[in-house]
Amino acid sequence: MRIGEIAALAGVTTRAVRHYHHIGLLPEPARLANHYRAYTVRDAVLLARVRRLTELGLSLDEVRDVLADDAGRELAEILAELDADLAGQQAELAERRRRLAELSDGDLPPALAGLFAEAPPTASPSAALDREHLTLLDATGAGSQELYAALAPLAADPAVLALYERLDALADAPADDPRIPALAADMVAAVPDEAFAAIPPGTGPDLPGFKEALLAEYAPAQAEVVRRVMAAFVERGPV
After folding, report:
1. How far is CA 129 from CA 13, 77, 133, in A?
2. Cβ–Cβ contacts within 10 Å for residue 97, how many?
3. What domains are there in the chain, each with its CATH number?
């Protein structure tokens, strides 16, 4: 195989292949009489392995360590592991596409729809925004029967509407409004630990940019309340 062929097969650029050669991550293959590099199947597997490991967030130095451990392993074993990694990635993408399709169709998962049905009617903008955030959590894979079961008592509790109304009242307030600390404390007290413990690691609030996007939806004083609530639950243990 030529460099363009192996790059296309592994899903990287020829520039990346040359860079991996330059830093010693990918050994230089033998050259033909015409001076072209001649890549083998093992080179292609190694390059695909580098790509997969970097996609998982490993640095190139960490990838180098993993490849060193692979050096004595059989090609069939490495191929099987790479195939399993790709199959897992494919399944995850399929699940996310399914969730996005549900949202685009205007349908909600039955468990989430049931949770919303428990809540009393309200015109609160904060309550509507909270529903949008729960829908987004579900779309990112953070929704579960355990989470919705933990939130069910809150959804049916009229006292929660009073918390939303207090948050609505801060729409035009500055970020140092004196009502902020008390409201944040009351909201923390209202949400059970089980709700946050039911959110799988790596989803929802753990996704890059999720917290920033959530806070950007609120006015300054409201965002400060939500930020304090989130910080309080982080201090109480892993989400």
Report:
1. 42, 49, 6
2. 10
3. 3-99 (1.10.1660.10), 108-235 (no CATH)
